[in-house]
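#help-structures

NK: newbie question. if I give both the sequence and a SMILES, will the prediction place the ligand too? trying with zinc ion
OV: yes, paste both and it writes out the complex. here, I ran yours:
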Amino acid sequence: MILIVASCVAALVALFGFYVYAWSVPTWQIFGPALIRGPASGRRIALTFDDGPTFPFTEQILDILRIKKVRATFFVCGMNVERFPEIVRRIHTEGHIIGNHTYAHPFPYFRGRKRFAWEIDRTQEAIEKITGQRPSIFRPPYGARWIGLYPALRERSLRLVNWSDTGYDWLEKSDIVGETLKGLRPGSIILLHDSRNIDLPEKVDRSRTVKALPAIIDGARAAGLTFVPLTEFLLPRET
Ligand SMILES: [Zn+2]
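OV: that's the protein plus ligand as structure tokens.
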């Protein structure tokens, strides 16, 4: 009897573990749709930066993008938007796309629909106040999904976008250029970071990402790939 109960408990724990794991893998779509990569036609790729804006790294990235003539996508946190409205204005006026990355970058598990709704709405409002536009794309913190998220996104016509490639720039010793370039192919969506969660600027160091960026852009172009704003991947496919 004890054995049966024990195996039932073990099975439930395993099931729950699988369930949580499935929500946390950015590329898995078991519980709802996520855009992971764009169409393979056209040799287009998209560059995305999460967690900003912050000072001075977002502006350093903007400087490089301007010199290299690349349009990118910034998934911003609402709290950082309120801290640095001028940088958000610059992102927008320089032709980059802005996406919603929640207000305070919470770990999504065990958060209800109401909390998601608040995180999303406050960020949409903060962005709209500056740019006059509400984002149409959303990326969850850590790429992780939880039960209340999809209904909240559906109600607001927001598309969930994760990524296919990354330089692992949140790890201290990652080879950001090598990691980013090694798997790139047409349709790739690249994840990098211009800030970290909603940490204050003095706690954030994204100098390694800034340093890696020119080589990433040059390397991708040398491979015959073209950078496009992520929203190009959301347009209906050409037939
Ligand atoms: Zn993030």
